[in-house]
Amino acid sequence: AQKITQTQPGMFVQEKEAVTLDCTYDTSDPSYGLFWYKQPSSGEMIFLIYQGSYDQQNATEGRYSLNFQKARKSANLVISASQLGDSAMYFCAMRELSGTYKYIFGTGTRLKVLA
Amino acid sequence: DVKVTQSSRYLVKRTGEKVFLECVQDMDHENMFWYRQDPGLGLRLIYFSYDVKMKEKGDIPEGYSVSREKKERFSLILESASTNQTSMYLCASSSPDRGGSPLHFGNGTRLTVT
Protein backbone atom coordinates (compact mmCIF):
# COMPACT_ATOMS: atom_id res chain seq x y z
CA ALA A 1 0.00 0.00 0.00
CA GLN A 2 1.15 3.50 -0.69
CA LYS A 3 2.40 5.53 2.24
CA ILE A 4 4.02 8.88 2.91
CA THR A 5 6.14 9.55 6.00
CA GLN A 6 7.20 12.94 7.29
CA THR A 7 9.23 12.44 10.45
CA GLN A 8 9.75 16.10 11.41
CA PRO A 9 6.67 17.49 13.18
CA GLY A 10 8.32 20.89 13.54
CA MET A 11 11.43 22.73 12.43
CA PHE A 12 13.08 26.09 12.91
CA VAL A 13 15.31 27.89 10.43
CA GLN A 14 17.02 31.24 10.50
CA GLU A 15 15.93 33.76 7.90
CA LYS A 16 18.03 33.61 4.69
CA GLU A 17 19.28 30.10 5.44
CA ALA A 18 18.34 26.95 3.53
CA VAL A 19 16.20 24.22 5.08
CA THR A 20 15.39 20.64 4.09
CA LEU A 21 12.05 19.05 4.90
CA ASP A 22 12.11 15.26 4.81
CA CYS A 23 9.68 12.99 3.02
CA THR A 24 9.92 9.26 2.43
CA TYR A 25 7.39 7.21 0.56
CA ASP A 26 6.45 3.64 -0.10
CA THR A 27 4.84 2.26 -3.21
CA SER A 28 5.01 -0.81 -5.42
CA ASP A 29 3.91 1.15 -8.47
CA PRO A 30 6.89 2.05 -10.71
CA SER A 31 4.98 5.07 -12.00
CA TYR A 32 4.07 7.74 -9.47
CA GLY A 33 4.13 11.45 -8.81
CA LEU A 34 5.30 13.32 -5.74
CA PHE A 35 3.97 16.72 -4.67
CA TRP A 36 4.70 19.29 -2.01
CA TYR A 37 2.11 21.69 -0.62
CA LYS A 38 2.36 24.68 1.68
CA GLN A 39 -0.40 25.57 4.13
CA PRO A 40 -0.01 28.99 5.76
CA SER A 41 -1.92 29.89 8.90
CA SER A 42 -4.74 31.20 6.71
CA GLY A 43 -5.47 27.59 5.79
CA GLU A 44 -5.28 27.45 2.02
CA MET A 45 -3.28 24.66 0.41
CA ILE A 46 -0.71 25.96 -2.06
CA PHE A 47 0.89 23.61 -4.57
CA LEU A 48 4.67 24.11 -4.65
CA ILE A 49 6.45 21.50 -6.74
CA TYR A 50 6.05 18.17 -8.53
CA GLN A 51 8.42 15.29 -9.29
CA GLY A 52 7.55 12.35 -11.52
CA SER A 53 9.11 8.97 -10.86
CA TYR A 54 10.64 8.85 -14.32
CA ASP A 55 11.95 12.39 -14.30
CA GLN A 56 15.71 12.35 -14.73
CA GLN A 57 16.35 15.67 -13.08
CA ASN A 58 15.32 17.00 -9.71
CA ALA A 59 12.44 19.44 -9.93
CA THR A 60 13.01 23.10 -9.14
CA GLU A 61 10.57 26.01 -8.81
CA GLY A 62 12.16 29.27 -7.78
CA ARG A 63 13.49 28.87 -4.24
CA TYR A 64 12.02 25.37 -3.98
CA SER A 65 13.81 22.25 -5.14
CA LEU A 66 13.05 18.62 -4.66
CA ASN A 67 15.90 16.30 -3.71
CA PHE A 68 14.62 13.09 -5.29
CA GLN A 69 16.46 9.89 -4.36
CA LYS A 70 14.53 7.11 -5.98
CA ALA A 71 16.51 4.19 -4.57
CA ARG A 72 16.02 5.52 -1.05
CA LYS A 73 12.41 6.43 -1.76
CA SER A 74 12.87 9.94 -0.51
CA ALA A 75 11.63 13.25 -1.90
CA ASN A 76 12.90 15.99 0.35
CA LEU A 77 11.91 19.61 -0.16
CA VAL A 78 14.71 22.15 -0.04
CA ILE A 79 13.83 25.79 0.52
CA SER A 80 16.71 28.14 -0.17
CA ALA A 81 17.12 31.61 1.33
CA SER A 82 14.23 31.20 3.79
CA GLN A 83 11.86 34.11 4.27
CA LEU A 84 9.51 34.92 7.12
CA GLY A 85 6.61 34.18 4.79
CA ASP A 86 7.80 30.59 4.46
CA SER A 87 6.53 29.89 7.98
CA ALA A 88 3.75 27.36 7.39
CA MET A 89 2.81 23.67 7.41
CA TYR A 90 4.32 21.69 4.58
CA PHE A 91 2.81 18.48 3.26
CA CYS A 92 4.33 15.84 1.03
CA ALA A 93 1.90 13.88 -1.14
CA MET A 94 2.00 11.05 -3.65
CA ARG A 95 -0.18 9.74 -6.41
CA GLU A 96 0.30 6.32 -7.97
CA LEU A 97 -0.27 6.67 -11.70
CA SER A 98 -1.47 3.16 -12.49
CA GLY A 99 -5.16 2.64 -12.07
CA THR A 100 -6.04 5.02 -9.27
CA TYR A 101 -6.64 8.72 -8.76
CA LYS A 102 -5.82 8.69 -5.08
CA TYR A 103 -3.49 11.30 -3.67
CA ILE A 104 -2.21 10.46 -0.20
CA PHE A 105 -0.53 12.87 2.20
CA GLY A 106 1.97 12.79 5.00
CA THR A 107 1.33 14.21 8.44
CA GLY A 108 3.14 17.46 7.65
CA THR A 109 6.03 19.51 9.00
CA ARG A 110 5.48 22.87 10.66
CA LEU A 111 8.28 25.25 9.65
CA LYS A 112 9.02 28.40 11.60
CA VAL A 113 11.40 30.95 10.10
CA LEU A 114 13.18 33.09 12.68
CA ALA A 115 14.14 36.71 12.07
CA ASP B 1 -7.05 29.98 -12.27
CA VAL B 2 -8.87 26.99 -10.93
CA LYS B 3 -11.37 27.89 -8.30
CA VAL B 4 -12.69 25.38 -5.81
CA THR B 5 -15.39 26.80 -3.59
CA GLN B 6 -16.66 25.28 -0.39
CA SER B 7 -20.02 26.59 0.68
CA SER B 8 -19.22 27.22 4.34
CA ARG B 9 -16.05 28.29 6.11
CA TYR B 10 -17.35 27.43 9.58
CA LEU B 11 -20.19 25.13 10.56
CA VAL B 12 -21.55 24.11 13.95
CA LYS B 13 -23.92 21.15 14.12
CA ARG B 14 -25.44 18.99 16.82
CA THR B 15 -24.81 15.30 17.33
CA GLY B 16 -27.16 13.22 15.20
CA GLU B 17 -27.85 15.92 12.62
CA LYS B 18 -27.48 15.21 8.93
CA VAL B 19 -24.80 17.51 7.54
CA PHE B 20 -24.10 18.48 3.94
CA LEU B 21 -20.79 19.96 2.87
CA GLU B 22 -20.85 21.35 -0.63
CA CYS B 23 -17.99 21.85 -3.04
CA VAL B 24 -18.02 23.38 -6.51
CA GLN B 25 -15.15 23.69 -9.01
CA ASP B 26 -15.12 25.77 -12.16
CA MET B 27 -12.40 24.12 -14.25
CA ASP B 28 -14.26 21.15 -15.66
CA HIS B 29 -12.10 18.74 -13.67
CA GLU B 30 -13.07 15.11 -13.76
CA ASN B 31 -11.64 14.21 -10.36
CA MET B 32 -12.89 15.53 -7.05
CA PHE B 33 -11.88 14.63 -3.52
CA TRP B 34 -12.86 15.08 0.10
CA TYR B 35 -10.21 15.06 2.82
CA ARG B 36 -10.32 15.72 6.50
CA GLN B 37 -7.40 17.37 8.25
CA ASP B 38 -6.62 16.77 11.90
CA PRO B 39 -3.55 17.90 13.88
CA GLY B 40 -0.81 15.30 13.78
CA LEU B 41 -2.67 13.16 11.26
CA GLY B 42 -2.26 15.22 8.12
CA LEU B 43 -4.85 14.94 5.37
CA ARG B 44 -6.81 11.72 5.15
CA LEU B 45 -8.88 10.82 2.11
CA ILE B 46 -12.56 10.21 2.79
CA TYR B 47 -14.00 9.73 -0.71
CA PHE B 48 -13.17 10.66 -4.24
CA SER B 49 -14.94 10.71 -7.57
CA TYR B 50 -13.47 10.38 -11.05
CA ASP B 51 -16.68 11.00 -12.97
CA VAL B 52 -20.28 12.04 -12.52
CA LYS B 53 -22.17 9.54 -10.40
CA MET B 54 -18.96 7.60 -9.77
CA LYS B 55 -17.40 7.43 -6.34
CA GLU B 56 -14.74 5.47 -4.55
CA LYS B 57 -13.98 5.07 -0.89
CA GLY B 58 -10.83 6.58 0.43
CA ASP B 59 -9.03 5.56 3.59
CA ILE B 60 -11.61 6.70 6.16
CA PRO B 61 -15.11 6.49 4.59
CA GLU B 62 -16.97 5.28 7.67
CA GLY B 63 -19.72 7.65 8.73
CA TYR B 64 -19.65 9.56 5.43
CA SER B 65 -21.26 9.36 2.04
CA VAL B 66 -20.92 11.48 -1.09
CA SER B 67 -22.93 12.62 -4.05
CA ARG B 68 -21.83 13.75 -7.48
CA GLU B 69 -24.81 14.49 -9.68
CA LYS B 70 -23.03 17.14 -11.75
CA LYS B 71 -19.42 17.32 -12.84
CA GLU B 72 -18.70 20.56 -11.03
CA ARG B 73 -20.27 19.66 -7.70
CA PHE B 74 -19.21 17.11 -5.09
CA SER B 75 -21.06 16.86 -1.82
CA LEU B 76 -19.96 15.22 1.40
CA ILE B 77 -22.73 13.95 3.66
CA LEU B 78 -22.53 13.09 7.31
CA GLU B 79 -25.60 10.93 7.80
CA SER B 80 -25.62 11.33 11.59
CA ALA B 81 -22.95 13.68 12.83
CA SER B 82 -20.85 12.63 15.77
CA THR B 83 -18.35 14.56 17.88
CA ASN B 84 -15.44 12.60 16.42
CA GLN B 85 -16.28 14.13 13.06
CA THR B 86 -15.30 17.56 14.33
CA SER B 87 -12.53 18.48 11.91
CA MET B 88 -11.38 20.62 9.01
CA TYR B 89 -12.79 19.31 5.73
CA LEU B 90 -10.99 20.07 2.49
CA CYS B 91 -12.38 19.60 -0.98
CA ALA B 92 -10.06 19.34 -3.97
CA SER B 93 -10.19 18.72 -7.69
CA SER B 94 -7.73 17.66 -10.35
CA SER B 95 -7.51 16.90 -14.01
CA PRO B 96 -6.54 13.32 -14.91
CA ASP B 97 -4.82 14.45 -18.08
CA ARG B 98 -1.30 14.22 -16.75
CA GLY B 99 0.28 12.38 -13.87
CA GLY B 100 1.65 15.65 -12.62
CA SER B 101 -1.75 17.26 -12.25
CA PRO B 102 -1.79 18.76 -8.78
CA LEU B 103 -4.79 18.91 -6.52
CA HIS B 104 -6.51 22.29 -6.33
CA PHE B 105 -8.05 22.88 -2.92
CA GLY B 106 -10.91 24.88 -1.55
CA ASN B 107 -10.43 26.99 1.56
CA GLY B 108 -11.84 24.35 3.84
CA THR B 109 -14.84 23.98 6.12
CA ARG B 110 -14.20 23.82 9.83
CA LEU B 111 -16.97 21.65 11.23
CA THR B 112 -17.72 21.47 14.93
CA VAL B 113 -20.14 18.83 16.17
CA THR B 114 -21.45 19.45 19.69
Task: List its traits.
heterodimer; A: 115 residues; mainly beta; six-stranded mixed sheet; four-stranded antiparallel sheet; 12 strands; 53% strand; globular; B: 114 residues; seven-stranded mixed sheet; 11 strands; 0% helix
Can you put this structure into words, describing what you see?
The complex is a heterodimer of chains A (115) and B (114). By secondary structure, chain A is mainly beta. Helix content of chain A is 0%, strand content 53%. In chain A, the strands form three sheets. In chain A, strands 2, 5, 6, 10, 11 and 12 form a six-stranded mixed β-sheet that branches. Chain A is globular and about 45 Å long. Chain A starts with a strand and ends with a strand. In chain B, the strands form two sheets. In chain B, strands 2, 4, 5, 6, 9, 10 and 11 form a seven-stranded mixed β-sheet that branches. The mean pLDDT of chain B is 93. The A-B interface holds A 6, 9, 31-33, 35, 37, 43-45, 47, 50, 52, 91, 93, 95, 97, 101-108 and B 31, 33, 35, 40-45, 48, 50, 58-59, 88, 90, 92, 94, 96, 99-100, 102-105, 107-108.
Write the topology of this structure.
The complex is a heterodimer of chains A (115) and B (114).
Chain A lengths: L2 E3 L4 E5 L4 E3 L2 E3 L5 E8 L6 E7 L7 E2 L2 E6 L4 E6 L8 E9 L6 E3 L3 E6 L1
Parallel strand pairs in A: 2-12
Antiparallel strand pairs in A: 1-4, 3-9, 5-6, 5-10, 7-8, 8-9, 10-11, 10-12
Chain B lengths: L3 E3 L3 E4 L5 E7 L5 E8 L3 E8 L6 E2 L6 E7 L2 E6 L8 E8 L9 E2 L3 E5 L1
Parallel strand pairs in B: 2-11
Antiparallel strand pairs in B: 1-3, 3-8, 4-5, 4-9, 5-6, 7-8, 9-10, 9-11
Q: Which percent range fits the helix content of chain A?
A: under 10%
**Residues in helices of chain B, as a percent range:** under 10%
Total number of beta strands of chain B: 11
Order of helices and strands of chain A: EEEEEEEEEEEE
* Derived structural class of chain A: mainly beta
Strand-pairing-aware structural class of chain B: mainly beta
Radius of gyration of chain B: 13 Å
Number of strands of chain A: 12
Percentage of β-strand residues of chain A: over 45%
Number of helices of chain B: 0
Largest sheet of chain B: 7 strands, mixed
Average pLDDT across residues of chain A? 95
- Average pLDDT over all residues of chain B: 93
Question: What is the C-alpha radius of gyration of chain A, as a whole number of Å?
Answer: 14 Å
